[in-house]
Amino acid sequence: MTASKYSYLGGFVATSNVYAGYLSGVPVSGTQAHSFIMSFESEEDIAKSRIIDGKDLLPMAMKYREELGWTSTKLPELYAFISFASAYPDGFSALIDSYSTLGSGVKNFLCVALALGELGHQAKGVRLDSGDLAQLSKECRKLFIEIGAKYDRDFSKLSIVASNDINENSLIALNEVGHEMDVFGIGTNLVTCQAQPALGMVYKVVEFKGTPRIKFSEELEKVTLPGPKSVLRVFKGGKPVFDILCTRGEVADLVGNPSNLKVINSREFDT
To answer: Are 233 and 269 in contact (CB under 8 A)?
Structure first.
């Protein structure tokens, strides 16, 4: 909270911390979380969040998807973008790397942006959160120009935001190689001292409504393992030896039902 307030006083233009915006009047800006996008699965999920100005945004976006030959984009991602756009038709921005930045995310964004344009609304832009930020920004800008020209739309004002542990060194490196970013979202390296680094932890969805979810990424370490997990802790002589990470349904198969099984906090097993 302190960092959100004083970084704004020091020159930052906005914060993604909505509580700081509420308490201190700091302008709030941002996209959506990966968990939001990955919570969508079918058209039913947007049954009540697809209408703008009395018009159904889904068939409008799908029309552009077909015309442009982008039929391999992830439909659940498109549904998520439509839901978000229906809530913020004049503030629609999209996190585009949940599945594939260039293969799906930016294309789904443009389908929704084109549909919004038909209704007199202007999309804001995209956020990149993984991969080669410089190259991805160039490819996104190129596609903005190409599609804008094709449909006679002014996409020159679409912004490209970069996040993903931005610091001084990465900013210098990006400027040296050249990029098309307009905004940098800086969080961890703003509010922590790197001599005393923070423990990086990120919330991800692994299952929603009984269906496993997996997040793909340009960066291998960001790809998630689908399905809820359990941790088995193995003890020998009263001392922990190692842990086994498994799916929740595998617990019974791994430990069976020995008479000396002791469950601690439903997650630690003394065998």
So the answer is: yes
- Rounded CA-CA distance 80/57 in Å is 12
Hey, where are the domains in the chain?
31-218, 228-270
> What's the CA gap between 91 and 21, in Å, rounded?
16
Question: What are the CA-CA distances from residue 79 to residues 30, 48, 129, 211, 227 (Å)?
Answer: 19, 12, 20, 17, 22
* Cβ atoms within 10 Å, residue 241: 10
Residue 125's nearest CA partner among 102, 159, 150 is 159
**CATH top class, domain 31-218:** alpha beta
Long-range pairs, 260-267, Cβ under 8 A, ≥24: 267/230, 267/231, 267/233
Task: Walk along the chain (271 residues) and give the pLDDT tens digit of each residue.
Answer: 998 999 999 999 999 899 999 999 999 988 899 999 999 999 999 999 999 999 999 999 999 999 999 999 999 999 999 999 999 999 999 999 999 999 999 999 999 999 999 999 999 999 999 889 999 999 999 999 999 999 999 998 899 999 888 888 999 999 999 999 999 999 888 888 777 777 777 788 889 888 898 888 877 878 888 999 888 888 888 899 999 888 888 887 777 655 444 544 444 444 3
